[in-house]
Amino acid sequence: MAEGPKKAIRRSTFMEVPYLSDPHRNLMVDLTSTVETRLDSQLLPCTLPENVRYFENQNGTSHATLYLRSGISSSPLEEILTVEICSVLKDLRPLLTSELEKIDFLSGIWIHSELPTGGELNITSLAMYLNSSTDAPNFTMDLILSSPTSLILYLNLLPRKDLVLHPDYLNTFYQDTELETQRQLLDKIPEVRPYFSPSLYVRSLLSPTAIMVRIEAEAAERMEEIIREHVHPVAKEALRIWMDQCACVKREVSQTERDYLRKRDEVVKTNTIEADLASSLLRLFGPETADRVQAAIRAVYFST
Amino acid sequence: MAEGPKKAIRRSTFMEVPYLSDPHRNLMVDLTSTVETRLDSQLLPCTLPENVRYFENQNGTSHATLYLRSGISSSPLEEILTVEICSVLKDLRPLLTSELEKIDFLSGIWIHSELPTGGELNITSLAMYLNSSTDAPNFTMDLILSSPTSLILYLNLLPRKDLVLHPDYLNTFYQDTELETQRQLLDKIPEVRPYFSPSLYVRSLLSPTAIMVRIEAEAAERMEEIIREHVHPVAKEALRIWMDQCACVKREVSQTERDYLRKRDEVVKTNTIEADLASSLLRLFGPETADRVQAAIRAVYFST
Questions:
Q1: Would you state the pLDDT for residue A100?
Q2: Of the candidates B133, B84, B123, B118, which has an alpha carbon nearest to the alpha carbon of residue B253?
């Protein structure tokens, strides 16, 4: 081949990252484009600098692409309007941003790393967070392949309220949506086992229908088959449920509830970056790159 | 034997229920008496009427004993003081009830039922709830044996705050207490598999270190061995952690937090009775007995 994967990844957009198996890439491309097609009008373009959209470590063994799109209604007015008319129109913002605009941000990250053991680590992640105009759950999905035959799958409609205190919320978004059917479909595959994250905080984010499993296949071909035949349709259906019954449904949210949602979302975002992402970035890319990437993520996560 | 088990159960106290295997009974007796010895000064005697302490269904195929002890500081003053001095001393209550009295109630229920299929169902449950003077977790443990070789074990330090919003609470009661070690000990037993309750509400009550497993043994002897060698020590250690690091630790709780805890606890109790216990009681004992028992439970659960 004239071009190595490193060169290929530099030129690539978020969805053209090499290294992944076809079924894995197809899953990520399908889900990302399904969301972007449906919610495009609510999303600003990705404005990340080039050295955050793609980054690697010093010796070139780890590569990653990051993709972040803020929701229109979650972004500072300056990003949408010129500074001159910004102050005049500030009070009119509720009229400018439609009630339908509920997206806080869409985030995608794909990481590839050559392991010292000779193996390869591939992580792909897709998340859509809603803003405080709705209390509906967020969508998060991570696939962590520590080898071509070993996958950890995390697929969660992340609750934005304390489910114990709000059984009606549990019924609306988890019972009535029949998300449990999807969890059970995957649970039937012989290679699928429940997985317990070493982070108790990550566990506490799991809804009662969350999928947190380890899949160990005998061969790479079987893993590809499992992703294509089982993981993909389950993830697609969970995404459809999220779009139809969470992201695009109008909810009555009082000002007190909005303040509560903002605070709770902030704790989740902070802990997700600090407890979960920070250590991986530091380990795989070193402190300088990790800091730069985290700063860029924080700028989008905490833009409101 | 001159006496059948039915006669034996009528005479028995809570901890002398027949039908259970020795290791299962020993576990329940050990845990209950450990708690009662340590926290006896905080507990009132069980004042349930005879037909609630023991009850059965019409054709005598289902039997149960119920045991409820209110915490001193959670009980109406009338139960502690004579009516005459009650009104005078009402305002002095905070001085009368020590800061150390944190127990809301201790509850135990043991159910035995002959199944239409010819098998036997044995359920034993032990729970200690704390009152709103502390935000520390409650202790709950259920063993559900649908046959001598099939057990569902639920062992949970039930969080009393939204863990997602309060990572410090998660650290104090779940990370620093190393409860996860106990979960992992059981997880290593070959017959142990994660179990998913059909009730999403029950799942939402689980802490990140909760044990919710199904144990399928090849023979009754092996199940007895697993309960004796593995379940018993793990449950005992979880109880020790709960007593040392939850029930007997002073926590600063503001009035606002107390109101919140009272409300959240009430939702949990209501749902535990209605979603979880009510259907079992109705199915096994019929509507009249189920109503009587539930009323008695409600009287203790909601006495404050």
A1: 62
A2: B133
